[in-house]
Amino acid sequence: MSQVATLFQQVKIDPSWSFSDKTRKDTTYISHGYHRYPAKFIPHIVSRLAEKYTRVGDFIVDPFGGCGTTLVESKVMGRPSIAVDINPVAVLITKAKITPIDLVKIEKEFFILKNRLEKYSEKTRVKAPKHERIDYWFKPEEKIKLAFIFAEISKIKNQDVQDFFFCGFSNILKNCSIWLQKSNKPTRDFEKKPSEPIKTFLKQIKMMLRGNARLFELLSEKGYLKVPSKVVCTDARTTPAKDD
Fold first, then answer.
1. What region holds the DNA methylase N-4/N-6 domain (predicted)?
2. CATH number of 25-100+225-244: 3.40.50.150, 3.40.1350.10, 3.30.499.10, 1.10.10.10?
């Protein structure tokens, strides 16, 4: 241990790796701001490492993909990539973040979905799920509206578009629940007033549309729209890897 400590003492610290000059706007550019995620590292770490150790066209692998930061930056830098994560929510978020959608197509789909959602009223028939864990976190009014949003998104046939909207839906769940807003730990706040689901969802999607537009334009400018990027929902410990 003393040898390791001595080795670290000899390492010259490079303060530029703190990226202390970066703002939230910098770290959530393009699709990086789609969804909150615990222990998410900023994209600038990935881009610097990729710039230093890889070249355009090199294949990048992230065995613990999380919410897809590595894959997004790899695509922006022209590096094909693949990630693995055991969490299906992480995989959904990643799919949405790495998939630039044609601006006309996604705007059209949002217009249709928005019109459907705005027709909601107390008379709207909604089949809300009956599950003790859902009832534990959501009040009846929010639960019904969230079920309505979920049902309307499920009607969308294009998988990329559906994933995009479900990613946005996932990100508003905490706001619309009684989960203590400032806590990552599962703690209920009985005094919390949950956000109204439909308005919150539409606001979330408008933010994501701006991110998608910037991602699509950036990749188009660089000629990287077709750079392959893939995420797989599985356990990295059981994923075979061949030596090159």
1. 11-94
2. 3.40.50.150
